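note to self: dont lose this again. the chain is below, predicted strucutre after it. 204 aa total, dont forget to put it in the shared folder this time
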Amino acid sequence: MKKYLLAAGAAVTSAVAAAALAAPATAAPAAPPAPASSSVSTTVSTATPVSATPASITPVSATAPATAPAPVSAVRTVRQGQRVDADGGYTLWLTREGKHWTGPDGFEQFRSVVDGNLDLTRPALSHQGEGTFHSGIYGGPDAPGRVDVTDAEGRVTRATLLQLPGRPGWGVWYAHTAPSDRDVSVAFHARDGRLLVELPATDF
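---
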């Protein structure tokens, strides 16, 4: 009888021990899954805005350079011999030899660019005045920007610039000014705004 109780006690003891060992084994794996799933969702949510930020910046940086370069040349390119109506009864045309024009009287005039009177290796400017109509030749190694005609009263008239195709290094300018008893000054500027050469007014 004593033997049975011991055996039963041993069996109970071993059963309790087995239950005690089994209990932590089932409780331990249940705790870790919760933090593991929350750390993964945090990584994904922070990665999403990082990849979205450059996408919104790219169109802005691409648009700015597209609209920035808009350099428009102030020079009108004409064909050799093409007649240009300069208003007021004046007509001009360019050939490889120089500037041709007629006035209201129909008399043809000419100024050469090949006779050596103009040194086109440096900024050059000429002026022919007929009342309120002014014209001339500009040239030189710099890209032309504008020719301004200023009268004695300080009024500035922007001249029209003509040249042949291929940028031959010279061109023709013309402008109409307000009536005045005094001469005008003429200034030739490069495309970057620099004053290249100026012809002061000469009153006789």
